[in-house]
Amino acid sequence: MSLTQQYALDLYRARQRGEPPPPAPGRHDWRTVRELRDHGRFDAVVQGRPARRRWRHALAALLRPSARRGTSA
């Protein structure tokens, strides 16, 4: 069953039961991503680590030696 078919079935069931319709798929994806990012930052602060320069930035700094030295390539 595809995502669209499942959503249509959920809409049908909600209408039959007199319940409010469920949110459309993908509607809250970016909010969820932001909440996960914020939770990771909060967890880092609680554990005493810096809340910035997460793994992606650290990896980019390792892969670009010029970024570590502060010189332009």
Q: Could you tell me the mean pLDDT? A: 82
> Strand-residue fraction?
under 5%
Provide the gyration radius in Å.
22 Å
What spatial form do the alpha-carbon principal axes imply? elongated
Structural class of the helix and strand makeup?
mainly alpha
The total tally of domains equals: 1
How large is the count of helical segments?
Answer: 4
Question: In total, how many beta strands?
Answer: 0
Cα-to-Cα separation, first versus last residue: 51 Å
Q: SSE order in H/E notation?
A: HHHH
Description:
The chain has 4 helices and no strands. The protein is an all-alpha fold and 73 residues long. The protein has one domain. The chain starts with a helix and ends with a helix.
Key features?
0% strand; 73 residues; mainly alpha; 4 helices
Please summarize what this structure is.
The protein is mainly α and 73 residues long. It has helices spanning 3-17, 29-46, 55-63, 65-69. It has four helices and no strands.
Ordered list of secondary-structure elements with their pairings:
Blueprint: H1 3-17, H2 29-46, H3 55-63, H4 65-69
Region (Disordered): 10-30
